[in-house]
Amino acid sequence: MLSELKIILDKGQSMDNATKAIASKHKERKNAEKTLSVITNGERDNEQVTLSKRDLELMIEATVEKVVVKAIEQEREAMFNAFELKMNDSIEKRDRLLMQSINRTMEKKHLEIAATQEEKKTWWSKLFSK
Fold it and tell me: What is the pLDDT of residues 41-69, one digit of tens each?
């Protein structure tokens, strides 16, 4: 029955149609009747799904894995954002300190230049005043 199912699926039929065809073909077998009843019950009540314990465990594991991966990605993104903010703050603080130092140095140089020019005026004025 499985090989027949595979052949039908390979021809492009949906899983639902393929299982119905195999179940109706092998209706005299008990398992086929159970399969057909599950299929027909599923058609009547779309909200009820029958899964094996293993299938349910696999679905739960896959769902949990997806949720965990998503949570890890969100946490990593939050950490990167926090790191980027901290780096930006450090860079801004460094830039501010550097600019303050440059401004202080420039002020000292301006004062030195002004003092030198004052000394030159005083020396010339002393020379010509006598």
Answer: 544 545 666 778 888 888 899 999 999 99
Q: Do the Cβ atoms of 21 and 8 come closer than 8 Å? A: yes
Q: Which residue has the tokens 């002020």?
A: 107
Angle 106-110-115 (CA atoms, 0-180°, nearest 5)? 150
Residues 23/7, Cβ–Cβ less than 8 Å: no
Angle (CA) 32 38 41, round 5°: 135
Length of the chain counted residue by residue: 130
- Residue 43 to residue 3: CA distance in whole angstroms: 24
Q: Please indicate, yes or no, whether the overall pTM of this predicted structure exceeds 0.70.
A: no
Q: What is the pLDDT of residues 87-118, one digit of tens each?
A: 999 999 999 999 999 999 999 999 998 888 77
